[in-house]
Amino acid sequence: MKSFRSLVIVAVAVVLALFYLSSTGKKPPMIPSDAAHQGTTTQEGCTACHAPGKSSPLKEMHPPKEQCLVCHKTG
To answer: HEC states along the chain?
Structure first.
């Protein structure tokens, strides 16, 4: 019984540690509230400037590029 209790304590500690580490990661930047971003509420609004070959393309290492508004929120 004592080993089961220890196992439960270790499992809970691992889950809490993983939860803490996942919640303290780098957050994506907010969508700026400047004139260029006013009214940007769709994916098409983002890709007008942030697609390859446009004025402000995203870096190659950027995560999935077709879901801007899932991560980036308006301020």
So the answer is: CHHHHHHHHHHHHHHHHHHHHHHCCCCCCCECCCHHHCCCCCHHHHHHHHCCCCCCCCCCCCCCCCCHHHHCCEC
Determine the Cα–Cα distance for residues 12 and 25; give it in Å rounded to an integer: 21
Global pTM reads 0.58
Nearest residue to 1 via CA among 75, 21, 46, 9? 9
**Which residues make beta-bridge pairs with 74?**
31
pLDDT tens column, 35-62: 989 888 888 889 999 999 999 999 988 9
